[in-house]
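Why do we care about 3D structure at all? Because function follows from shape, and shape follows, mostly, from sequence. That is the central idea of this module. The next example makes it concrete: a single protein chain, its amino acid sequence, and then its structure expressed as tokens.
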Amino acid sequence: MPIHDWTRVSAGTWHAFHLGWVAELQRTLNNSVLPSEYYAQAEQIAGPFGPDVLTLQVPGSNGNGGDSMPTAETEMSEYALKRRTIVIRHASDDRIVALLELVSPGNKSSRNALRAFVDKAVESLFRGFHLLIVDLFPPTRRDPQGIHGAIWNEIGSDDYAMPTETPLTLAAYSAGAAKKAYVEPMAVGREVIEMPLFLEPEIYVNVPLEATYEAAYDAVPRRWKVVLEGADV
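And the structure:
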């Protein structure tokens, strides 16, 4: 199934699809992808990566989780706060191993929102948490090289130039001593390909983004499928 243009629909429609996709990813990761010593769990968002998900590495720890924005941007930010991140933990002690994040429009709706997202991504990598980031929204003036360009600008030694014909991004990060990024530029109309999710610096599993995307899309209301597909369905 090709990637749809999610800028055509409301923030609430993307949020509903986002929740469905997260559920499909969690189910698939736990049932057929992750080794038995790992598990995936969708955790409530109170900030860019959880409530505050980075403080949840140690069981029993207590986490407490700019620009003025027009109403539409405020709505997007509110939905971004409600979304969930898939957290991969090790079953032996429930420590965080990796994070899988589906970017929402609210993550780019203000300078502060983008800054918070990028800061958390960078902090995650330097804490040793591997990342898989899926961004199906085009760059804004705040992230002209896409979400990966904004992140890599903070940790990479070279600049990233996003191809203009492929403005969407899939990016897998290995959080070993040397941070590595595996980037697949994408575009509306292309299929979402499998991407690696690192469990150790050199060990990963492939996440079936395409199959889970399609399963989640099946639940999108007909009213919005018409908009997304540009024709009767």
